[in-house]
Amino acid sequence: MKTDIILAGVGGQGILSIAAAIGTAALNNKLYIKQSETHGMSQRGGAVVSHLRISNKPIYSDLIPQGEADIILSVEPLEALRYVSYLSETGFIISNTAPFNNISDYPQIEVINDQLNQLKRVVLFDADKIATELGAKLSSNMVVLGAAVPFLNHIELPDLEKGISELFLRKGEEVINANITALRAGKQISDDKIKGL
Fold first, then answer.
1. 81-89 contacts: CB < 8 A, separation 24 or more?
2. Beta-carbon count within 10 A of 105 CB
3. pTM of structure
4. Any alpha helices (H) in 29-172, and if so which ranges?
5. Total count of domains within the chain
6. CATH number where 75 lies
7. b/e for 129-140, b at 16 or more Cβ within 10 A?
8. Domain range spanning residue 113?
9. Which of 5-19, 30-44, 52-66 has the lowest mean pLDDT?
């Protein structure tokens, strides 16, 4: 089974850390993985998108065709909306609702979130607020990743926790624990959403 994921956001929001955590977990589970990423014009503030493909069989292309993504995982709502055309008919959008106002004509956030809410399979929440309430303001990307756990094939919560531990090993136990706490909080959001369907 293959899982195709579009990771979207803005430079500095931790998209590449999400990709690294998923990638580490996939490799630890002896899965095949392909990744392609594009960075915006600036390191911070420019659009960042990553195509991430995970499978128990060899993968021959690192790019996901339009209409075939199983998950759009976004830490920024406008960036989630930008990649809707990649979503398959059975795919899910998991997105932060907190905007990153990096352009002068940024649309009204209510309009963006309304458009996302009109889609069939959507999990939307304010990851920035949740991370701040946890005392881990910089871990909102891990809240978003946690919300994707129920939709990842072959990768479970303990796999990602191990991946995060390996990824942030040099930063110490406090950073590892903050990110794992954020990950668990995100998973709880999706678990509650699924129960409500």
1. 81/112, 81/115, 81/116, 82/8, 82/47, 83/6, 83/8, 83/49, 84/119, 86/6, 87/6, 87/119, 88/4
2. 4
3. 0.92
4. 77-82, 109-117, 127-133, 140-148, 157-167
5. 1
6. 3.40.920.10
7. ebbeebebeebb
8. 2-196
9. 30-44
